[in-house]
Amino acid sequence: MIDPILDFIFTNLDPLIRIIIYPGITFIMLFTIFAVWYQRKFLARLMLRMGPVHAGKFAGWLQLIADSLKLLTKEIIFPEHSYKKLFLLSAITLPVIPAAAIALVPFAPGYAIFNVRGYTGILFLAIMSLYPIFIVLMGWASNNKFTLIGAFRTIYLDVAGEIPLFLAALGVFVWAGTYDLQDIVAQQATMWFVIPQFLGFLVFFISYFAMIEKAPLDIPEAETELVFGYRTEYTGALFLDTMLGDYINVLAWALMMITLYFGGYNGPAIFADPVLNGAFWILFKLIILLAITYTVIISYARLRIDQAIRLGWYYLIPLALLNLIITVILKYVVLEGGA
Amino acid sequence: MSYDMHRYLTDPFQEIEELGGGLFKLNIGPQHPISGQGRFIVLTDGEVVYDIEVDIGYSHRGIEKILEYKNYIQAVVPLERMVMLDTSNILMGFVRAVEDLYGIEPPPRAKYIRTIINELNRISSHLYALGLFAESAGWNPAVFIWTTVDREPILDILEMITGARWSHSFFIPGGVRADLPRGVKERILDTMDYLERRLEVYEDAWIYNETFRMRTEGVGILPRDKALEWGAAGPSLRASGVKYDTRLNEPYSAYPELDFKIVTHTAGDSYARGWVRFEEIKVSIDLVRQAIENIPEGPVKKALPPRPVKEETLARAETARGEINFYIYTEGRDKPYRVKISPASFRNFFVIEQMPKIQEIKLADVPPLIYSFDPWFLDADR
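Above: the input entities. Below: the structure tokens describing the complete assembly.
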């Protein structure tokens, strides 16, 4: 009886390690814990304050664990007349969406959780476009005016931010001549795509803030108007779950940006093992990108929803289309098909 | 223009049906990140706001009634609970009224000390208000925490002079409680230099930040004639182009002897109101410097005569939120028969309620609109 199971485990050890340890669930959870601590400390420095200091010997690094334990002991309250099944399921499903998309991102040559080739870039964007739908479901199921307005705003912002982001990503696909994320990263061994695709990168970077719903485009959860937007009614473990979804969403989009524009796992060889080397450079780039993200978060006031939509439709989408046209001309007319 | 006090409090749903249905009645407060100790009833269709009603009275403490049972010295303590951020400016109106009743004039040194403390309080109150204004326009708490941190040195000075950071009970009818302590002059001048450096940082990072201006410019434009008609007070009035400041129009304390200008702006929008506050901090820094340089020697308080010489009086002072008026009627005893307070926040709340009637306001504009007036529920409730 035990033999077939052991046999199964040994033949599938490599995929299991990828799913469970790196770059799968354990990595994602550990990185989330790190990202929360990093965000708190980084923002605190910019705000002239300390950030968490008490839990954990080194700079309050256990604060998130303490917060999570507190939230897990809290009662889960279902609002009156809420759609309970949807309220529960949409919150539980939320972190799964970006985590599923991360499965397609290569962390080393030929090393991804779901190691397929082909249309992975398109598949990544398709999976990530499900994320706002669950936010809308959460807002609608809560039976609360604040969450409902937050859900409406998510739809508006999604339309204004997702289209330019996809168009900018399309520029990269055209430049690389492939939809395959592993090929795209492999092509960036000599030159990062941020150089030929700089205009597209700018569009992607601005739309990125709409997709991760952080300031200056944190319009759906605008604290001063909507309390906490679509997650106002969530308490305890479910609130923790929605926050987890939020951080994994940031991680997924940051990984996508690194993959498309900053050479993914590419970098000077420090470790002999390509997986270790890729992990080092991915983490290095992630930390720098997150620092830039947090600096932007702190530097700007939140836009109004109509201003954000105008930004998306009047500026970002034309710029993304312009970038696409320039890319096509550059690749197929000037360079005649060879990038 | 007829004004029905409790339009949505009494029968909200009927009103909403009359307006065509499909509207949300959003209760912003009393438990909401921005509301404070009160409630804004916002009638909205998705993002467009149709009406705002301010529901005050959650923190009514009956200060006017309490004052009828206290003599004029005792009255200082409950009275300054009106606005904890701005206690000395609130008290200034009251001590002016009582000194007028008794027909006495405080000693010149007391006047200068009062001016210094008033202006320090005004700076700290404006810093707090500007931080809230930035946060209400959708900033992360960064700016609010900056201003809160930069308030600390001022509160330290106030503690050094008066013994308390907030409610110092320092002004009494006839003067101030104590003289300035040793070494406070240098400390104040150092702090004013520090604040000037910080204000430059604010200008770069925040006041002239493009996104902040996008959010606040052109939002809640209060025209000059409407500002006068509806009785806007303080910086909100001056931002609409009205050059009215009690410190200049009816000078008290050391203000007649000091040289300062009144900050006005012509735009009348939320940004202008915030900008006027910001520039007033600079004026206050200048005033503190002048007062500390020119302060005369002498006693700091004078005893009150046994009985008031006048029967009634009306006195005013410029608080950080606008002009406060005190009407006191007395029957010749050492206690007032009736005190009527007209605070600035109460008038500004009325103006906020009128704003959706003259222009379109979005839901996201409501918090910056409210905090550009810097209303304080405790002030309005009394």
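Note for the figure: The interface with chain B takes residues 43, 46-49, 145-146, 149, 152, 215-216, 218-219, 222-225, 227, 297-307 of chain A (CB under 8 Å).
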